[in-house]
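During the practical work, I worked with a single protein chain and the tokens that describe its fold, as given directly below.
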Amino acid sequence: MKLSIAIDPGKSGGYAIAWGSLRNIHLHNLGEDFEFVEHMQDLKDHPDVTSIEAVVELVPPFAGKMIPSSTSFKLGKSCGYLEGVLRMGEIPYKLVRPQEWQKGLSGLSGLTSGKRKKVLMNHAKRLYPSVKGLTLKTADALLISHLMRSERQV
């Protein structure tokens, strides 16, 4: 079985694992670093898994009006850590800009932070009403998984 992993590396991020198709998705919060490492290793060792691919949201390279420099540093650190885990596990991945995976989602123009997250959460609920564990932390990862899989980029 082929696994697709979509990762939102933000402070309150998460990841979505599509087991073979978008009909079987498991959502996870990014908790302690060691939990992610152990989970990736467990997936690599799973007897039913034939291949794994991942998509990681590309974090902004600089701090701007909307992102304080302390937040930008933490985002970069988190993204680098996650990329390192994927590389160590020999899991191929690609980086995707938020503008790419959010393309085609309505109601986002002009919204920032909490309001934007709520609109993204509503899109995820609408597209996947039966997925368990959907929270503000996992909604972006689910949408990254949806949009990347539907465009066959993963």
